[in-house]
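Hi W.,

Here's what went into the run:
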Amino acid sequence: MARRRSKELLELAEEIGGEEAVEVVKALEKLKEATDEELAEATGIRVNTVRRILYLLNDEGLADFKRIRDQETGWYYYYWRLETKKLPEIVRSKKMAELKKLKEMLEEETSEIYYWCGTEGHPKLTFDEAMEYEFQCPICGKMLMQYDNTKIIEDLKRRIEELEIELGLRKKPRRSSRKK
Ligand SMILES: [Zn+2]
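Here's what came out:
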């Protein structure tokens, strides 16, 4: 598997099932095809957990299995393998969702002025809310000042731009056109 693809897959695995899912995916990359028990053995993760992770991966379209019946015992064995055909699509739709969230955050930051006492963890209030508290922090009582969110807005804009470039929605700016 190409390195970039593998990295994306591992990142998704982590989102889906944490560090244990990463281990299962790594083991599957190596073994190509394996039963849940073989994977449990390879990773040292309990077989029930391995199974749960495999079903989660399957739900996301990242793992598939084939069922094979043992001729002698009549038991069924499930052979799992990674499925990466849908990976680019999944990665893209996750990025689109993130982009949407960032745009909403930007909208929120730019459409409203916030008031804040300056202490980390204390609430940032809208004008109406601040009025209600007579411009005093509801936690510490300090005076609320207009909160400067310029840095947050710049940061959000930068992340939106990066994502849009990654998604091919925006052209990469040329260095030469960026001179000041
Ligand atoms: Zn405060």
